[in-house]
Write a structure and sequence with these properties.
Order of helices and strands: HEHEHEHEHEHHEHHEH
Largest sheet: 7 strands, parallel
Distance between the termini: 39 Å
Strand content: 5-15%
Protein name: 2,4-dienoyl-CoA reductase [(3E)-enoyl-CoA-producing]
CATH superfamily: NAD(P)-binding Rossmann-like Domain
Keywords: NADP, Oxidoreductase
Strand order of the largest sheet: 3-2-1-4-5-6-7
GO molecular function, one term: 2,4-dienoyl-CoA reductase (NADPH) activity
Number of domains: 1
Oligomer: single chain
CATH architecture: 3-Layer(aba) Sandwich
Structural class: alpha/beta
Bound molecules: hexanoyl-coenzyme A
InterPro entries: DECR2-like, NAD(P)-bd_dom_sf, SDR_fam
EC number: 1.3.1.124
CATH class: Alpha Beta
Length: 331
């Protein structure tokens, strides 16, 4: 049995086998969000190839994901850095050689940490731009010919209700919609990702490839939020004038988020299934934000939490620069 139960990575609305015969190639596929996306697709019939920098972590994730469906084929290819085009291309070639095709791609590899511009070296900014933006470009370049082939072979809709092919999703973020302190690097990098996908939609749409973005908000239980979440996205308590705790929303959760809760990996997996399914045959160049409306209030991020040390702009004026452990002024 896989580490996760189906209800943890997929809502119960999808039909079994809707991705049968299709192969998904996923960068960052061992990570919390992308492994759930992959798990959902595999559960619904796809085979998968997941790519990552860490060999053991990537191979172990592939083995675990394969357990969600009898007969699933899931390959984990470690030691692949999306900043290195050649290693990515080799991985794509291996995926096609072993699994037969690449029908869907998820560009999910990302790097992030909390730092102000003052705390960022030029190399730190470049590292995140390279992983997120250049890495997404490299992923497109390494897989686009396979996606065109798949889109040509699996035109959708079709009378047989066979699954589509030739779909691309980049996993982005929402920081750049408003600007978020301590995230200049990730915001710039994800703005670049969104822009790139616009061009893919325009240039490859005529070949049948549908390219879209999923922009998750804060997702509970992920490495990203463990690193970034010590802030106003969180569970700050709201009280009345007598100090009585007020119920922040009907879901009882997070007052900073209009929907009242943090996102889950299942939210993102469901969005992925939608965009790769025949239901999204004519959705191209779209950004699907899955965050409960959080970005509309994200001035609160790193500014309105209950931790006084994180009140904007006090923490900046006090000289806080970076979450890097060796930095004295630690966030
Ligand atoms: C300031 C930092 C830093 C920090 C690293 N650097 N951490 N600067 N504050 N906290 C600097 C380093 O000093 C170095 O600059 C430069 O960044 C590159 O660091 P390296 O460790 O040499 O690079 P590398 O090994 O390639 O690591 C890349 C990384 C790292 C991005 C820095 O954090 C990483 O590998 N992350 C991958 C996993 C990850 O981040 N997952 C979370 C993704 S969540 P100098 O000048 O010293 O050479 C996400 C979305 C979250 O992306 C959405 C939430 C809503």
């Amino acid at each position: 049995m896989s580490k996760q139960q189906p209800h943890e990575f997929l809502s119960p609305v999808w039909r079994d086998g809707i991705f049968r015969g299709r192969v998904v190639f996923v960068t960052g596929g061992a990570g919390d969000i992308c492994s759930a996306q992959t798990r959902a697709l595999v559960y619904l019939g796809a085979d998968a190839c997941i790519i990552g920098r860490k060999v053991e972590k990537t191979e172990a994730a592939a083995i675990d994901i394969a357990k969600v469906r009898k007969g699933a084929r899931v390959i984990g290819i470690g030691n692949v850095d999306v900043r290195n085009f050649e290693s990515l291309q080799k991985a794509a070639d291996r995926c096609v050689a072993e699994l037969g095709s690449i029908d869907f791609v998820i560009a999910g590899a990302a790097g992030n940490f909390i730092s102000s511009i003052a705390g960022l070296s030029p190399n730190a900014f470049k590292a995140v731009m390279d992983i997120d933006t250049i890495g997404t470009f490299n992923t497109i370049k390494a897989t686009i010919d396979h996606l065109i082939k798949s889109a040509t072979a699996h035109v959708s809709p079709n009378a047989e209700n066979l699954p589509p092919g030739g779909r691309f999703i980049a996993v982005s973020a929402t920081f750049h919609y408003t600007g978020v302190p301590m995230q200049s690097h990730a915001a710039a990098a994800k703005a670049g990702v969104d822009s790139l996908v616009n061009s893919v939609a325009l240039e490859y749409g005529p070949y049948g490839v549908m390219a879209n973005v999923i922009a998750p908000g804060p997702i509970e239980g992920t490495e990203g939020m463990d690193r970034l979440g010590s802030s106003g996205f969180g569970e700050n308590v709201v009280t009345d004038e007598k100090g009585q705790q007020l119920r922040p929303s009907v879901r009882g959760g997070s007052p900073s988020i209009p929907s009242g809760r943090w996102g889950t990996v299942r939210d993102i997996a469901d969005a992925t299934v939608y965009l790769f399914s025949a239901a999204a045959d004519n959705v191209n160049g779209h950004v699907l934000v899955v965050d409960g409306g959080a970005w509309r209030r994200q001035g609160g991020f790193l500014s309105a939490g209950d931790n006084p040390a994180l009140q904007y702009p006090g923490f900046l004026l006090a000289g806080a620069a970076s979450s890097r452990k060796k930095t004295a002024s630690k966030i």
